[in-house]
Amino acid sequence: MRIDRERATQVTVRDQPAKEHRRTRQRAAVDEVLDETEDFISAQELHALLRTRGAGVGLATVYRTLQTLADDGRVDVLRSDAGEAVYRRCVREEHHHHLVCRSCGATVEIAGPTVERWAKSVADQHGYTDVSHTLEIFGTCPRCAA
Amino acid sequence: MRIDRERATQVTVRDQPAKEHRRTRQRAAVDEVLDETEDFISAQELHALLRTRGAGVGLATVYRTLQTLADDGRVDVLRSDAGEAVYRRCVREEHHHHLVCRSCGATVEIAGPTVERWAKSVADQHGYTDVSHTLEIFGTCPRCAA
DNA sequence: TCAAGACTGACAACCATTGTCAAAACAGCC
DNA sequence: GGCTGTTTTGACAATGGTTGTCAGTCTTGA
Ligand SMILES: [Zn+2]
Ligand SMILES: [Zn+2]
Ligand SMILES: [Zn+2]
Ligand SMILES: [Zn+2]
C-alpha cells in the first residue's frame, strides 16, 4: 500500500517553495472561485460552477489546476463520503487541520502544538522518521444543531 | 459536502452492537485473509488473493463483506494514495489510530487520551456536537530507514 | 516579433465501486 | 432428513470520478 503524501492534510514540507506557473485565464477563474468559496468544493462542482458563469474551463484543466494548487500547498484537500476529493483555499498558510460540520460543511481551521507534539512523540517512540499526519474533526455545528 | 462517518477511522459509536449475519464460506474466506494480513489491504487485492488460493469469491461479495465488517466496526478503513479504500483487522477493539510506514506499510496501532481530549475540547470550543475524528500518522519505519 | 515550451480541451480510457436479479445457500422448523 | 422463507451470492452491466491523449492555442522571455 502506498500512502498519499500530497493530497492529505499534513505537515507541509515546503522544500521547493513554489515552482512558477504561467498565468492563464483558466487558472485565474479557478482561483477566483476558490477565493469566494468558504466550504470544501469538488473538482466536478467547481467545473459546473464555472460553466454556469460562462467562464467555461475544461474539466481536465480544472483537475490539473487543483492538483497543482494542492501540490504547491495552496489548497487543502480531503475526501467526501463518496471518496471524492474536495478542495479549499485556506486562510492559514501554515500547517493546520479542520473542524467540519457534517451537515452544512461549515469549516473552522484549527491548529495547536498539542497534537503536533503528540504525533511527533508517538512516531519517535516507535522509531518512525520523516513523519506526517492527517487529522480532521467532524461534528454538527451550532447552527445546524439548533 | 457530505462527510463519511462510516468509513473513516473515528470514534466508534456502537449503539446496535452487531446485527447477526449468516456464516458463509465466502465470509469465512475473507475473514481468514484479514486474520493473516498485517497490513492494510484493498478489496481488489483481497479478491485477487482469494482467487489464487482457489477459494474464489465474487468481487461484489468481497466488497459487500468488507463493507459489512467496517459497518460493524470489525475492521478499520483508510484510503491509499489512489483513493482506494484499504482494510485491516485490528487488534484493539476500542477506538484507536494508526502509525503507518509509507514504504512497507508496517502498521502500529496507537491510542491515547491526549488527542481524544484535545479533539473534544476543540470541538466544544466551537460549539460543535456529535463529534468524531480521523487521524493517521505516516512515516518511515525503522526497518525501512536502515 | 518569434520560437520554445507550457497549457488547454474534447474525448477516450481507466478503474474502483455499486446496482441488478435470478440462482444458490443458509437457518430454523417439521 | 426435507420444507420454506430469507439472506447471500456472483456474473455482468452501469456508474462516476479521475487520468491519459494529443493536436491546437496561449505565455513568456529574448
Ligand atoms: Zn484549511
Ligand atoms: Zn497537524
Ligand atoms: Zn487499527
Ligand atoms: Zn481518536
UniProtKB/TrEMBL annotation, chains A, B:
Residues 1-24 are annotated as: Disordered. Coiled coil: none annotated. Zn(2+) binds at residues 101, 104, 141, 144. Keywords: Cytoplasm, DNA-binding, Iron, Metal-binding, Repressor, Transcription, Transcription regulation, Zinc. Homodimer. It comes from Jiangella aurantiaca. PANTHER family: FERRIC UPTAKE REGULATION PROTEIN (PTHR33202:SF2), ZINC UPTAKE REGULATION PROTEIN (PTHR33202). Its main location: cytoplasm. It is found in: Cytoplasm. Its cofactor is Zn(2+); Mn(2+); Fe(2+). GO terms for biological process: negative regulation of DNA-templated transcription; regulation of secondary metabolite biosynthetic process. GO terms for cellular component: cytosol. Binds 1 zinc ion per subunit. Binds 1 Mn(2+) or Fe(2+) ion per subunit. Belongs to the Fur family. One of its GO terms (molecular function) is transcription cis-regulatory region binding. This is Transcriptional repressor. Fe cation binds at residues 95, 116, 133.
